[in-house]
Amino acid sequence: MIVLDTSALLYWTLDPAQLSAKAELKISQAERIVINSISIWEIGLKVKRGKLGIPLTMTEYVERLQRLEAIEIRPVDVQAWLDNLDLAWEHRDPADRMIVALAARLGCPLITSDRVIAGYYPETIW
After folding, report:
1. Tens-digit pLDDT profile for residues 51-108
2. SS3 for 7?
3. Which residues are CB-neighbours of 121 under 8 A, at least 6 positions away?
4. Cα 31 from Cα 44, distance rounded (Å)
5. How far apart (Å, rounded) are the C-alpha atoms in residues 96 and 103?
6. How many helices (DSSP H) and strands (DSSP E) are in the chain?
7. Which is nearest to 98 in space by CA: 111, 79, 115, 122?
8. Backbone torsions φ then ψ of 30, nearest 5 degrees
9. d(CA 24, CA 28)
10. Spatial distance between the Cα atoms of 116 and 105, rounded to a whole number of angstroms
11. CB 40 within 8 A of CB 75
12. Alpha-carbon distances, residue 93 vs 18, 42, 63 (angstroms)
């Protein structure tokens, strides 16, 4: 099992050439790929603000994700917020914090190119 951060999710689903060879290999070998639902929110906001273009609507994008057998989209619930608050990390981005908290709770690697996350969470892969 692995967790993808928002950028890794976008790269994997829309532009696989952007993935590192190591990230691509780990994703292809994963029996289960977990995504925090906050990534859907983060992508949607970027699309809505014109900072990101994707070739389909957000509804279509999420529907396609949900059809992938290996994908599990985890909701942001009360426990997720508590896990987020328990992180001993001064990082202010709520989405990054939520994704790291999920990976930590599951005790699994996190696929991310984000060096700030990698500096905090030791099980990052890129």
Report:
1. 999 999 999 999 999 999 999 999 999 999 999 899 999 888 999 999 999 999 999 9
2. helix
3. 100, 103, 104, 110
4. 27
5. 11
6. 7, 5
7. 79
8. -70, 130
9. 6
10. 19
11. no
12. 23, 11, 26
Token pair in block for residue 66: 């949900």
Strand 2-4, strand 33-36: pairing: parallel
Question: Quick check: 38 and 74 in contact, CB under 8 A?
Answer: no
**Residue 79: predicted pLDDT:** 93
Please tell me what DSSP assigns to residue 16.
Answer: G
Question: Which tokens belong to 49?
Answer: 């603000």
* Residue 89: count of CB within 10 angstroms of its CB: 17
Token pair 């990230």 in the structure block, residue:
23
- Walk me through the domains of the chain, giving residue ranges and CATH numbers: 2-125 (3.40.50.1010)
CA nearest neighbour of 76 among 101, 59, 93:
101
Residue count of the chain: 126
Phi, psi of 18 (to 5 degrees): -80, -15
What is the reported pTM?
A: 0.90
